[in-house]
């Protein structure tokens, strides 16, 4: 992947700082801002000192109650994902999922500022958008279609395994739904990500076809149905082992 993943522990710290900044920005007065800054600093220090950010996550979750609309929902989805990923032993897998979710939400925010709204305000006016942009180093680190196909696949697998039995919707819903968040539809995101992942795969397929033609290759098979030597590329199977489902800790806060 040409996109460089931000390490999981570093990225989750940056995201929590971004959400804390969002909470402070919505304080109704300067006095309240100073009070929140002090509380956030204390919780952040305690999390760093103890090596556990469980209480800090819960603190941020509760403080988001005073923020209405999509930023509250998006922030809580990020916090819930961090809580779940804290139980993942494979830090690269955790990093891939969290990087993808942060990018996905960043792009969602950008999209909301498109069209007629672009004449009134800029996506840079969004505190959370700026925080995610800086957290992922998007100025010099933007995923391409090859990256996105893999990234969306990883995030989809993660979400599916926390929503459906065995990660497969026909099997039904899990008894515990960690993404049962007020005003949030995880199913909508799963459907949207499925389309985005398919779109990235199709673009990659088309790009491969163009590149092959430009190299002088022919897409027409020279073998017949009676050939005794089937194409090796046709017989090739993936050597990548199937990813194990991400363990799902019980919901700690709501």
Automatic annotation (TrEMBL):
<feature type="region of interest" description="Disordered">
    <location>
        <begin position="215"/>
        <end position="254"/>
    </location>
</feature>
<dbReference type="InterPro" id="IPR044887">
    <property type="entry name" value="SoDot-IcmSS_sf"/>
</dbReference>
<dbReference type="InterPro" id="IPR031758">
    <property type="entry name" value="SoDot-IcmSS"/>
</dbReference>
<dbReference type="Pfam" id="PF16848">
    <property type="entry name" value="SoDot-IcmSS"/>
</dbReference>
<protein>
    <submittedName>
        <fullName>Dot/Icm T4SS effector</fullName>
    </submittedName>
</protein>
<feature type="compositionally biased region" description="Low complexity">
    <location>
        <begin position="215"/>
        <end position="233"/>
    </location>
</feature>
